[in-house]
Amino acid sequence: MSSLFPRAVAIHQDDFYKSDSQVPTDVDTGFQDWDCPLAFDMNKMVQTIQSTRKQLEDLPGCGKSVEVHSSFASQWANPQKDVNSKLPPKALDSLRNTVLHRLNVESTEEIPFSLILVDGILLFYDEANNESPGAECDTGLFIYAQYETLKQRREARSAYVTKDGIWEDPPGYFDSIVWPNFVKYHSNLIAAHPEITDRKVTSAGGQKSAHEANVAICSSDMPFKDTLEVCVESILGEWNRRQQIQAQR
Prior knowledge:
This protein is α/β, with parallel strands linked by helices. The protein has helices spanning 42-58, 65-71, 89-103, 147-156, 173-185, 187-192, 224-248, and strands at residues 8-12, 115-119, 140-144, 160-161, 166-167, 215-219. The strands form 3 sheets. It has a two-stranded parallel sheet. Helix 3 (89-103) runs parallel beside helix 7 (224-248).
């Protein structure tokens, strides 16, 4: 993303976990529940998104990429060194050319906006809650995986570094906490897109709220290139929507 949109700032929900002693305990299992909204300081995360947006808006002309990188050194969307290996150079160049063409600019430095990229497991858990991170997002991308894939990935992890120490999932944690919470806190998205939890479903159904309608849905089984294209299209689509609204004023 930073190769396509150099003025991108990243905010990670994992940075807003509460201290270990504040993470709630599930009453049925006795396990600490690291996969529920109360495990995060959501208010602080929302405030961080809001303040970051304000700082970016205050940079002249949305700020040159070097200004964004220096102002948000710890939040700059700095990819892993091997991330580009997931996408052939020609494919990345083609997508970059698409971005430039759609925005009618000659280089990525001329892109007329900055981006705040927000990632996390519980961004869209309750679109009715104005203090949820998802309510701060103009557009979204929900990447899901099926039960078997999620379980395999989760149980392959040995441990997590927390604010106060190390957390290891106890036996049965995925089926007792992780998967039930995934279904519970994404019930609205799942109702509109049953393929998220049902492999047999191939098309989305149900009614979407205004917020859900602006969230693209992708399977993690999709090729990396296709997922990136959906993400870019979501960004460009939101920019076009804003431009149309402005033109009508």
